[in-house]
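task queued by scheduler; priority normal; single chain, no ligands, no partner chains; default sampling; output format set to structure tokens
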Amino acid sequence: MISLYQLFKILFGLIISGFILFVIIYFLSSYTQIQDSSQQATTLKNFLKTAGDVYTSGNSVGFDDFYGKDFKLTFDTREPEGIVSGTGKTPVWFPLFFSLGDEVFLSRATIDMGWWEFHAVEAMPRTRIIFNPMTDDWDFLMEIVQFLPDSEFFDPKITFGLCDGSLLQEKLCGGDFCEKQGFLYQLSNPRIMDKCTVRMPDNARLIIISPSCSQTFSQHFCLTPPNTEGVGNINLRGSQSNLLYKDPIDIIAAVIGGYEKDLYGNSGETLYEYKNTVFREELSLASRILANRALIVGSKHPQSSPCQKAYSDLFNSMNTLQGILSDEDYYKNLGTVSSLLKQLKQAKTTHEELAKRGCDYQ
């Protein structure tokens, strides 16, 4: 028969053993979490370094360090703009539009203003871009494609196709999926297509191009072709906003972001707003620098010389740009966006005239 003292020793031993086991499990769990966080931080650091290299060099590359890791990344547009992960917020020093996957393809898109260039890195997983052109003017469609990634000779693939009513046409390149250049070759016979009724695969982005994007367009993205001033609309599924675009990268940012929701709202709309924020910041800085240069160099020329007038025109053009960009919400107003495009065109012409006269090199 077990004595009371022996029973107490058994119970005490069980309690101590349970406590020790709990402590061991707790520390093992904490160690695993720390290890996972460390791996995530390293992977994110490598991703941003790779994206930064693409930004500075323009050389495309595949990135597969996300493979097998449970990554959740969102973009926070509040200053400083950056990527939010399980390890916190990491600032990004260059324009980056990304959609997460085990493997992503990184490339650089560029808008050339003549006197200034805007670069942005596009990071996309395996994606099927499907166009539904409900207009016979395909120049706009081709312009969008020109700014999307060319994944030829790389993985993962970004492929392109068309949707005409209930017909999904993707294997247009000799029976295979088309990448960027191959797809552009297929766009020589523009025609108006019926509204796409095909249910899109999970990794597809459907882009409808229509003269009118009404509320009946609930699939993915609907774009109206640009007006005579170069401005059009982006309608994004799940967003009540009617977004204005002034260049293809406005569209690309929204398309890459998609229509999923996160803590910061609609991800496509978030990247669209981020693009316009960094575009304003970089363009404002570039115009200030060029205005100062025009003022300094122009003052070295005689008052009546053609070069002095050319630099004066350039200075005035840059100042006008800065005035337009003083409004942080410039991209939300049709009149302001139209004025910006008009002034950008004027600035490019003014700079070209200055260069033709040889003034830019004196």
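post-processing summary
- The longest strand covers residues 104-112.
- DSSP finds seven helices and 16 strands in the chain.
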